[in-house]
Amino acid sequence: MNETNSRKKVPISPQLSSADQVAEEVVRRLYSGRYVAGQKLIEADLVEELHVSRGTIREALRRLSAEGVVSLTLHRGAYIRAFSKNDVQNILNVIEVLLGLAARTAAKKTHSARDKKQLEAYLLAILEPQKNYYDVVRVQNAFYRFLISSSENEELERVLPSLNFHFLRPAYLVHSPRVYPERLKEFELIATAVLSGDAKRAEQTARNHVIAIARSLRELPDEAFSGSTGITKT
């Protein structure tokens, strides 16, 4: 089959009108296994598949680069960022401290009925069964973002999103069936501490959550972080 005919068979995504939507579609493809770590993203293919301008694609790739999802290299283009096992552990060491700080501060500031109701809604979304891994991560990231925004700390809001959890994808695909119930309990403990205004316990439960993730990932073989997840690309 020649390249032209092959491209015609690429599933076409719904019409996208902004760089944010393009970035979301790239992330969705990463979680679904269509993209893997180290894979090159070809602008011309994205323009054809997503029906947007090259300028929109480039803006989306710049945003994904800022979030740590994509690596942009001069003269080589954009690649899905790859993380080694050591990279992941180092990043988690930073996230442990920062997420703990976000939870502690959120516990001090989450007082209004509206904020409490919103946090409860995020927790319920996490506890609800999700259709796919993308939706699992999407609702979990919404929970994390609530903690960060509730802290009202501009530096946390600037730094933590760039240390997001996209890099955990290959490891979670391997490990989630065994440990996912434990992760759900950890989210409940964090939410309970924040809602009760217990800043010390909120920080500790958030840090314990990240420590548990790091401990689980240390048990995985190095190849679990290489982008080889056993999922067939489409």
Please sum up the structure shown.
The protein is mainly alpha-helical.
Key terms for this structure?
65% helix, Arc Repressor Mutant, subunit A, 4% strand, mainly alpha, three-stranded antiparallel sheet, 10 helices, globular, 3 strands, Four Helix Bundle (Hemerythrin (Met), subunit A), single chain, disordered N terminus, 234 residues
Would you write up a description of this structure?
- The protein has two domains: 3-80, Winged helix-like DNA-binding domain superfamily/Winged helix DNA-binding domain (Arc Repressor Mutant, subunit A, Orthogonal Bundle), CATH 1.10.10; 85-225, Four Helix Bundle (Hemerythrin (Met), subunit A) (Up-down Bundle), CATH 1.20.120.530.
- The chain is 65% helix and 4% strand.
- The protein has a three-stranded antiparallel β-sheet with strand order 1-3-2.
- The chain has helices spanning 3-8, 19-32, 43-50, 54-66, 85-109, 113-127, 133-150, 154-159, 169-195, 199-218; strands at 40-41, 70-73, 77-80.
- It is globular and about 50 Å long.
- The chain is mainly alpha-helical and 234 residues long.
- The relative contact order is 0.15.
- Helix 5 (85-109) crosses helix 7, helix 6 (113-127) packs antiparallel against helix 7 and helix 9 (169-195) packs antiparallel against helix 10 (199-218).
Radius of gyration: 19 Å
Write down the CATH class of the largest domain: Mainly Alpha
Shape: globular
Strand order of the largest sheet: 1-3-2
SSE series: HHEHHEEHHHHHH
- CATH architecture annotation name of the largest domain: Up-down Bundle
Domain HTH gntR-type: 16-83
Keywords: DNA-binding, Transcription, Transcription regulation
GO molecular function, one term: DNA binding
InterPro entries: GntR_C (IPR011711), TF_FadR/GntR_C (IPR008920), Tscrpt_reg_HTH_GntR (IPR000524), WH-like_DNA-bd_sf (IPR036388), WH_DNA-bd_sf (IPR036390)
